């Protein structure tokens, strides 16, 4: 009878049984008569105890030369041990080396970030990196489950686009055959609006691109955004949806990824405080608060990263800032009828200083005003004719938002920088590996 191969994260189901683990050697120490190997298999890390008598002289000697990241199959008996990480260890009866690994470049000593980034394809094997990527996986699935359970239809939007959605300064041009320039999408929103007129409630979820020339800890040039859009919706509906999405994502990660958050030493009481309703504040009030806090804030300008940090440190739950000056927001935003210089928009700022995770609002639904806006923003109207059609054929109040996945993962994991939240971050000076 062959021995079953098991995953380390399910080892508890196999106490007392003979099993095999297929993985890589993470590290190793010896005390003369016993080797302690830490083996990882992607699902977890496991201590393997290897005594000379259990595996025989030859294998025992060979094990003394195993180097970091050697791939190997280890056989043994699962033993419960309260002292072991995870509560179990494997008492080895034998092993086979699958692939050698010589001079693995990432050792347990400290390495600089650039060094690690250049070796990102290997760095992702580290326990901290796998924990973050598992949280990301949970966030993505929580987002999908949320929208699917709320009756939203997934309708994907194109990545090659003919025009800007979020301002012309951060477009990535691509040669599209001989004589056309296409741009990598900055946001699926405009197509999402068309999809909402067809399907009611929709979402798109994919990579988006911004040629952000600034080197900040919050900006990637390629990031993942989920964007819901609803027909017959106003700003209030948009904010309510954002609140429910964020709370459900946080609750899901707390529930399913407690071990990863613990490894990352995340203070989860901060995440447990994320409950609806979120505090709301207009841009004018936010501006006043910033000045009170001694920030050199210029009323009428957009909130900068530091402003967002200061604001979001004031609250335990995410903060919804609404009614920004229309002048600092995108062309498609509807103005507040009560105060036409303000946009019916919302930015959700994550607490603890993490800054903007969501941007959205109610869309301009009037044809003539939209045409004027396109002119004011010096956008090519021909490229937007299809978008204008949505206002020609049965226009309705509608709105939605975009939530950046890497920003959310950064906040939930409590990280300094976005770069660890995606397997291969793309930034101003970084496109390798
Ligand atoms: O606020 P933004 O620019 O909004 C839009 O793109 C809208 N069209 C979305 C919509 O209404 N459908 O971007 C939305 C979110 C931000 O709140 C942030 O979380 C994330 O996308 N984001 C970035 N994340 C990483 N790197 C960047 N360079 C980002 N730019 C925006
Ligand atoms: Mg924004």
Task: Characterise this structure.
31% of the residues lie in helices and 27% in strands. It has 433 residues and is α+β, with helices and mostly antiparallel strands. The chain folds into 2 domains: 8-99, OB fold (Dihydrolipoamide Acetyltransferase, E2P), CATH 2.40.50.140; 120-421, Bira Bifunctional Protein, Domain 2 (BirA Bifunctional Protein, domain 2, 2-Layer Sandwich). The chain has an 8-stranded mixed β-sheet with strand order 6-10-11-18-17-16-13-12. A 5-stranded mixed β-barrel has the order 1-2-3-5-4. It is elongated, with a radius of gyration of 26 Å. The structure holds 4-amino-1,4-dioxobutan-2-aminium adenosine-5'-monophosphate and magnesium ion. The site of 4-amino-1,4-dioxobutan-2-aminium adenosine-5'-monophosphate has 23 residues, from strand 11, strand 17, strand 18 and helix 14.
């Amino acid at each position: 009878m062959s021995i079953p191969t098991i995953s380390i994260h399910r080892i508890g189901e196999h106490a007392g049984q003979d099993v095999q683990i297929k993985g890589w050697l993470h590290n190793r120490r010896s005390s003369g008569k016993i080797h302690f190997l830490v083996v990882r298999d992607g699902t977890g890390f496991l201590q393997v105890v290897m005594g000379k008598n259990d595996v025989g002289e030859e294998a025992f000697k060979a094990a003394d030369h195993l180097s970091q990241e050697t791939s190997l199959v280890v056989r043994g008996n699962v033993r419960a041990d309260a002292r072991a990480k995870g509560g179990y260890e494997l008492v080895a009866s034998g092993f086979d080396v699958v692939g050698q690994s010589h001079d693995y470049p990432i050792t347990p000593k400290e390495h600089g970030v650039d060094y690690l980034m250049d070796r990102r394809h290997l760095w992702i094997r580290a326990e901290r990196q796998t924990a973050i990527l598992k949280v990301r996986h949970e966030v993505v699935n929580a987002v999908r489950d949320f929208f699917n359970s709320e009756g939203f239809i997934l309708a994907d939007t194109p990545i090659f686009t003919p025009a800007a959605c979020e301002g012309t300064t951060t477009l990535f041009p691509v040669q599209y055959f001989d004589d056309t320039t296409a741009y990598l999408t900055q946001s699926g929103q405009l197509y999402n609006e068309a999809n909402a007129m067809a399907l009611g409630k929709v979402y798109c979820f994919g990579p988006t691109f911004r040629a952000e020339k600034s080197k900040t800890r919050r900006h990637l040039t390629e990031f993942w955004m989920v964007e819901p859009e609803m027909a017959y919706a106003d700003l209030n509906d948009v904010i309510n949806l954002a609140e429910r999405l964020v709370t459900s994502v946080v609750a899901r990660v707390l529930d399913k990824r407690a071990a990863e958050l613990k490894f990352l030493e995340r203070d989860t009481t901060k995440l447990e405080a994320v409950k609806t309703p979120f505090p709301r504040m207009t841009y004018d009030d936010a501006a006043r608060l910033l000045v009170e806090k001694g920030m050199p804030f210029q009323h009428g300008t957009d909130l900068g990263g530091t402003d967002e940090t200061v604001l979001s440190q004031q609250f335990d739950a995410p903060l919804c800032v609404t009614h920004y000056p229309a002048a600092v927001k995108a062309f498609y935003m509807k103005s507040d009828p009560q105060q036409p210089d303000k946009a019916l928009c919302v930015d959700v700022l994550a607490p603890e200083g993490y800054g903007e995770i969501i941007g959205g609002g109610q869309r301009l639904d009037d044809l003539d005003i939209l045409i004027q806006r396109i002119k004011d923003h010096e956008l090519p109207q021909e490229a937007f004719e299809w978008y204008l059609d949505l206002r020609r054929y049965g226009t309705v109040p509608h709105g939605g938002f975009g939530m950046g996945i890497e920003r959310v993962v950064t906040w939930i994991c409590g990280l300094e920088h976005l770069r660890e939240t995606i397997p291969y971050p793309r930034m101003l000076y970084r496109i390798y590996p």
